[in-house]
Each structure stands twice: as structure tokens, then as C-alpha cells.
Amino acid sequence: LRDYIEKATQTIGGEIQKYQVQIHNLVSDSIRVRCNASYMESILLNFLTNAVKYRHPDRVPEITLNAERQENRLILSIKDNGLGIDMKKYGDKLFGMYKTFHNNKDAKGIGLFITKNQVEAMGGKIEVESRLNNGTTFRIIFL
Predict the structure, then answer these.
(1) pLDDT tens for residues 40-64?
(2) How many whole angstroms separate alpha carbon 118 and alpha carbon 135?
(3) Average pLDDT over every residue of 24-52
(4) Domains held by the chain: number
(5) How many Å apart are CA 57 and CA 87, to the nearest integer?
(6) CATH label of the domain that carries residue 117
(7) 0.70 exceeded by the pTM?
(8) Which of 4, 9, 70, 101 has the smallest C-beta neighbourhood within 10 Å, fewest atoms?
């Protein structure tokens, strides 16, 4: 799993440098996940690019990735300190197609829709916690 994360961060290395994003990859080398490699790369890229795209203008952007085993599940968490999402207003629409939640000219509203479908196609699910102006944590639960 750590290798997938490192590959994704290299892919967006230009953006990471440009915005001085601090990435904390706390995933142990020993964590393994059975997955569709293309899907995993796409999922990680989407979460990382979203974290950069929706960074808070008044803070150094930070993204922390961690993974832990709980019973028979692997939980990957991706936490940022960005703009956050108003969950009361948008929570039920978060993974909908063509849904956007910030005024970003590059937003298409398909990234989270595709990501959710890819996670579910691998037998997993996504949970999200977010606070406006505080950041967002996505958890991918691999069953």
C-alpha cells in the first residue's frame, strides 16, 4: 500500500512542490492490500489531488495517510487540513455525479463518484468526516 501512495505522490509531485504540500505517509511497509492496481492508483490520485485543489489559503497544506488493521478489515485514512465540506448541506450529495462543493474552476464533479465506484468494485466502502474550514478525512475500508 505504501508503494501505491508513494507512486501517487510522485505523479503529482509538481503540484506538491508548487503549493509546498506536506505529505505524511504513515503507512507501514508491512501493510498489504489486495486490490485492482489501476483502481488503487486512481483512488489515491483523486484523494490527493482533491486535497491539494481544496487546500485552505491561510495554512500550509498537509495530507496525512495512515492505515490500520481492525479485525478482518484494513482501513486507509487520508486526512487533510483544507477547506473542508459542509456535511449538513452536502453530505448526502458528496459522491453524486457532477456534484461540486466549492467554487473551483477545475472541479468537474466526477472524481468522488468514480472513486466511490472503484472502491465498491473492490469490495470496500468509503466513510467521510469533514468540518468546514478545518479539513476532511476520508476512510477507505477494505473488507
Answers:
(1) 999 999 999 999 999 999 999 999 9
(2) 23
(3) 96
(4) 1
(5) 20
(6) 3.30.565.10
(7) yes
(8) 70
